[in-house]
């Protein structure tokens, strides 16, 4: 057995490190954190802010194996990542595995290369408790915010919602941008573009220096231009340079991978993690743009050999962020001699990192910029043409030209022909086009990361999970927005004639950008109204600074928590007691048929329209909003259209047919079967023929694809992806199977595995009482009806093993349930008969005054 045990957090990292260490070392993986706060309950003593960590059920076997390996080793090397999360993993390992200071060493490295690993072994240290405390502070504070704010949302908005410190601020950014877009009033102006010809018939594209606000002013200018002799009034040529960007930080890598490769933030980090663990790049969670001297020398050598000495310009970059203390180097290749790697997807990201790092060490590009002024003294404004020539490409040789996300496509500068001052030009065409101002763009993933970083909210490790979380919670999404159409005027001067035409242009459409959902807007408005400080950008950034101070040893984490909680908790109590319920209610107007108020609001199953008031004698009627509609913008006319649903069609094959809209969108109902109408199709336009087409498509999709032990097997796609159905079992089909061409052996394998899992699901079951003890993902639990309950610890404060639970009596299990829910077995009272409500004389209810 090896004398030295090295523990890292991932198996890929373990495999790479094992290659560099001799037979005296054994490398094992902890598969991330071996313990954490409990999945259920807060798990924090609010008097002392001490966390109650526990080893999750799926890690118990691993911890047992690690303890056995520790007993056989003379020295344990904790080699988790060098950031706060990695330090916390090392601390949890040391504590749970009962490692003594004399038998453990902490090593860190920012790249997984032989030199870096051996150097780390030569320079061990102990666990940095300040970094651990900074991680604990973040974990505990975020858990408290989530656990205390979420129940307030359940009570005041809708059950099942949740809140988070950084996530809620990210949602706020997206909601505020959407409101800004809605309130934006576009202004029209006329922009003039000219194409001029020199004596050799070479074209020069130019723009008028001033826009015209009025159509008649633009037309008047074109009239003057008819008879104007255009001349070159001035030619100015000046040298310029372009400088390479700094090497990648986590944030800039996420932004560039999005714009150049189309990768989302989560995918970028997943691929970067693999590149790091396989030894190709340095640590991928960093705020720093610094490069080591070794890296600078390696880049210089590669640049000189590949491009020549003129292209080399070694330099180091300084980090603007004061908090960039965790990883002391930018993301870069570990070996510049490795120009590409085998895995195609990994290679795309590696190439981006490789070229960006190389470019950062290359000479500036030299350009020559030319500006030509074209006009005549008789004209009030002159045209200007801009172009540039690259004299020396420098870093562009490796990295190319980067176009920013918000660059105007019309501003592409081109190469201009040679002209001289006083030279007469003829116009080929002069166009005056009506253009409208545009609101700020919605956030892309890269744009949101950039904004969060600018505001100092979150850190490199938080961007990807934050963006994933707000989508998972359905507070924001990336649904496609259909464009609107408007008329624009275009006037063209060609051969002394002005042609005027009215064209249609599309505007306001968007795709792959963040848009808040109705529930996201309602939750955001409630939180910003009632928890201003928690959602304040400055406050969130100050909390991050406090974490940095804890990491540097300048602040004690429990003191910071005490100070935070002393203000936060009273606010929670006040809001819970005094705040009004929030459902985003918006009064749209009055239904002309009934004279009743029409509201758009959040209901139990999401956004809906309500005609009538809840306190009216006659109950209100409801309709769900369709995809693409939202509470804030739906009109009265659009809302009333929804009440035409559901509508009946003729029977088909002896069963009734109707069209409606429900929780999961528009549908065709055939008998008792609900069939979703394809995305983007208006349910009100579904005819008898189209309904039958949709039904036949469903019949074809539901036709048995195979049999299992004589019973049919069908397949389909649901909310959680592709599945096969056998009897009453729905079985998810993993990606490793070809869902379109499932073989009989695939189907047998999937059903066998599901039946085996179902057989092992119950430890004990009392069907009559609807009570069972079941094996779950996080360990055994009690199920009563649809409710789930924890299994308490035994008298000796240890947890029950599965074998012991087989002998527990039904009475004991009932006691566990009633300890957690006193009314679990109480008889449900029959609802009292409703008293008839007094008739109201007024039909229209005044809308509530808007909160400022």
From TrEMBL:
Keywords: DNA-binding, Isomerase, Magnesium, Metal-binding, Topoisomerase. Residues 162-167 are annotated as: Interaction with DNA. It holds the Pfam family Topoisom_bac. Residues 825-852 are annotated as: Disordered. It comes from the Bacteria. PANTHER family: DNA TOPOISOMERASE, DNA TOPOISOMERASE, TYPE IA, CORE. Releases the supercoiling and torsional tension of DNA, which is introduced during the DNA replication and transcription, by transiently cleaving and rejoining one strand of the DNA duplex. Introduces a single-strand break via transesterification at a target site in duplex DNA. The scissile phosphodiester is attacked by the catalytic tyrosine of the enzyme, resulting in the formation of a DNA-(5'-phosphotyrosyl)-enzyme intermediate and the expulsion of a 3'-OH DNA strand. The free DNA strand then undergoes passage around the unbroken strand, thus removing DNA supercoils. This is DNA topoisomerase 1. It comes from Chryseobacterium vrystaatense. The gene is topA.
């Amino acid at each position: 057995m090896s004398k030295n045990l090295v523990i890292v957090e991932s198996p890929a990292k373990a495999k790479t490190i094992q290659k560099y260490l001799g037979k005296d070392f054994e490398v094992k993986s902890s598969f991330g954190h071996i313990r954490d706060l409990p999945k259920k309950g807060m798990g924090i003593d609010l008097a002392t802010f001490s966390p109650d960590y526990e080893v999750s059920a799926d890690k118990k076997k691993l911890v047992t194996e690690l303890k056995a390996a520790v007993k056989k080793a003379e020295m344990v090397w904790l080699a988790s990542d060098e950031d706060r999360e990695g330090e916390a993993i090392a601390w949890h390992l040391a504590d749970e595995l009962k490692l003594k200071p004399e038998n453990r060493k902490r090593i860190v490295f920012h790249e997984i290369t032989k030199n870096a690993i051996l150097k780390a072994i030569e320079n061990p240290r102990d666990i940095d408790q300040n970094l651990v405390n900074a991680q604990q502070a973040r974990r505990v504070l975020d858990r408290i915010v989530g656990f205390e704010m979420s129940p307030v949302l359940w009570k005041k908005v809708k059950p099942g919602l949740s809140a988070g410190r950084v996530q809620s601020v990210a949602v706020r950014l997206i909601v505020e941008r959407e409101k800004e877009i809605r309130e934006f009033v576009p202004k029209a102006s006329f922009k003039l573009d000219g194409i001029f010809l020199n004596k050799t018939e070479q074209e020069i594209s130019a723009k008028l220096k001033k826009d015209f606000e009025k159509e008649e002013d633009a037309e008047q200018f074109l009239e003057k231009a008819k008879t104007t002799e255009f001349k070159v009034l001035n030619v100015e040529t000046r040298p310029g340079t372009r400088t390479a960007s700094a090497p990648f930080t986590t944030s800039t890598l996420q932004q560039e991978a999005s714009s150049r490769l189309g990768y989302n933030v989560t995918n970028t980090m997943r691929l970067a993690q693999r590149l790091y663990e396989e030894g190709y790049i340095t640590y991928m969670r960093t705020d720093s743009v610094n490069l080591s001297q070794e890296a600078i020398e390696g880049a210089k050598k590669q640049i000189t050999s590949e491009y020549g000495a003129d292209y080399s310009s070694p330099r180091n970059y300084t980090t603007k962020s004061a908090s960039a203390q965790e990883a002391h180097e930018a993301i870069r290749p570990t070996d510049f001699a490795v120009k590409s790697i085998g895995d195609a997807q990994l290679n795309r990201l590696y190439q981006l990192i490789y070229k960006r790092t190389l470019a950062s060490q290359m000479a500036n590009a030299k350009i020559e910029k030319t500006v030509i002024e074209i006009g005549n003294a008789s004209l009030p404004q002159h045209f200007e043409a801009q172009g540039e020539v690259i004299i020396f490409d420098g870093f562009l040789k490796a990295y190319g030209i980067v176009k920013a996300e918000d660059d105007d496509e019309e501003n592409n500068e081109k190469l201009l022909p040679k002209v001289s001052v006083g030279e007469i030009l003829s116009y080929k065409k002069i166009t005056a086009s009506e253009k409208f101002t545009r609101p700020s763009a919605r956030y892309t993933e890269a744009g949101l990361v950039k904004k969060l970083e600018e505001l100092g909210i979150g850190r490199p490790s938080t961007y990807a999970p934050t963006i994933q979380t707000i989508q998972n919670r359905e507070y924001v999404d990336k649904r496609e927005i259909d464009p609107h159409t408007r008329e624009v005027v275009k006037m063209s001067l060609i051969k002394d004639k002005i042609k005027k035409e009215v064209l249609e242009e599309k505007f306001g459409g968007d795709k792959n950008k963040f848009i808040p959902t109705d529930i996201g807007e309602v939750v955001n408005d409630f939180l910003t109204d009632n928890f201003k400080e928690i959602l304040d950008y400055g406050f969130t950034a100050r909390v991050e600074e406090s974490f940095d101070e804890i990491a540097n040893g300048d602040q004690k984490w429990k003191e910071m928590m005490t100070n935070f909680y002393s203000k936060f908790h009273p606010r929670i109590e006040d809001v819970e007691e005094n705040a009004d319920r929030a459902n985003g209610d918006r009064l749209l107007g009055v239904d002309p048929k009934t004279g009743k108020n029409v509201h758009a609001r959040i209901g139990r199953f999401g956004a809906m329209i309500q005609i009538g008031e809840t306190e009216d004698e006659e109950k209100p009627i409801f309709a769900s909003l369709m995809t693409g509609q939202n509470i804030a913008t739906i009109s009265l006319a659009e809302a009333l259209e929804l009440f035409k649903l559901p509508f009946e069609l003729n029977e088909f094959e002896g069963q009734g047919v109707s069209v409606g809209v429900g929780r999961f969108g528009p549908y065709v109902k055939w008998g008792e079967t609900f069939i979703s109408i394809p995305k983007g199709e208006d349910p009100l336009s579904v005819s008898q023929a189209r309904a039958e087409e949709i039904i036949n498509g469903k019949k074809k999709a539901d036709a048995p694809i195979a049999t299992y032990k004589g019973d049919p097997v069908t397949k389909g796609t649901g909310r959680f992806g592709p599945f096969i159905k056998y009897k009453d079992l729905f079985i998810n089909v993993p990606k490793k199977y070809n869902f379109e061409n499932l073989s009989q052996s695939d189907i047998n394998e999937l059903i066998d595995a599901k039946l085996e899992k179902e057989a092992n699901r119950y430890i004990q079951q009392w069907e009559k009482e609807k009570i069972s003890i079941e094996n779950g993902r996080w360990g055994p639990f009690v199920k009563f009806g649809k409710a789930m309950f924890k299994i308490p610890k035994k008298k000796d404060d240890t947890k029950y093993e599965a074998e012991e639970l087989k002998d527990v009596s039904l009475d004991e299990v009932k006691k566990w349930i009633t300890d957690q829910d006193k009314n679990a077995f109480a008889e449900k009272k029959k609802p009292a008969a409703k008293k008839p409500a007094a008739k109201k004389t007024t039909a229209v209810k005044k809308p509530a005054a808007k909160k400022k």
